[in-house]
Fold this protein.
Amino acid sequence: MPSPSRASTTHPVDPAENGCAPPPPQHVAIIMDGNGRWARARGKDRNFGHRAGTENIRNIIRLFGECDVRYLTLYAFSTENWSRPKSEVRALTRLIGQVLKREVKKMHREGVRLHHIGRLDALDEGLRRQVQDAIELTKDNERINVVLAWNYGGRGEIVDAVRQLITEGMGAEAIDEQAIESRLYTSGLPDPDLVIRTAGEMRLSNFLVWQAAYAEFWSTPTLWPDFGAAEIDAALSAYAERTRKFGAVVE
Ligand code: FPP
């Protein structure tokens, strides 16, 4: 596919005009991996990589928006990431606070609707309030939905849904997929069509384990801070070539 020259507008008329492969996935979910390796290759500490990775996010939201992707989920911090060195956890937690402070108004102006998935109760009061305020501020926006997976784990999400069902007193016979689905953090959001992982890894790492049951998977060796237009083109072109069968026979 030829390299696109994307229009600078944030309100594309036709994604194909922006060099995007049709039809675009409605929902792309990204495991942003490789910040540490990116920093090490430059002789810097891991947090330098996380800062560079964070800087990349604004651009990526814009590029996917131009391709008419309506939902973009970003795996920013997993429930397993608490086991990282304290200084790295602190830096990552600081980064989300900084991003919210610095970017939310801009995102709001650009029509981004922000969502959060994960356990917010592990965050301190101030940060929790920042996340909730950003969600409230942007709730009527329709340009693109950005779902921040922060303190998120797919297994924990299912556990939380089951706990809720039990709390509600739902009987075993009444429990079906819809009952569970509607109690996941992602209730009301479509399942991801395409999961992208950077830095050459091929694992799901507890990301959207329920929702990604029929997602297409695409991986690139590119490290997250370097992930950009070329990788998006490659991912969307690969997606456009896939035949999605959802377990059925497609001739
Ligand atoms: C994985 O790279 C990356 C993470 C665990 C954090 C991802 C976070 C960001 C991109 C920034 C935070 C985002 C927001 C919205 C504030 P790694 O550290 O495992 O890299 P490595 O495998 O090369 O060591």
Observations:
- Residues 1-13 have pLDDT under 50 and may be disordered.
- The pocket of farnesyl diphosphate is lined by residues 32-37, 46, 50, 53-54, 57, 76, 81, 92, 95-96, 99, 148, 199, 224 (CB under 6 Å).
- Strands lie at 27-31, 71-78, 112-117, 144-152, 194-197, 216-219.
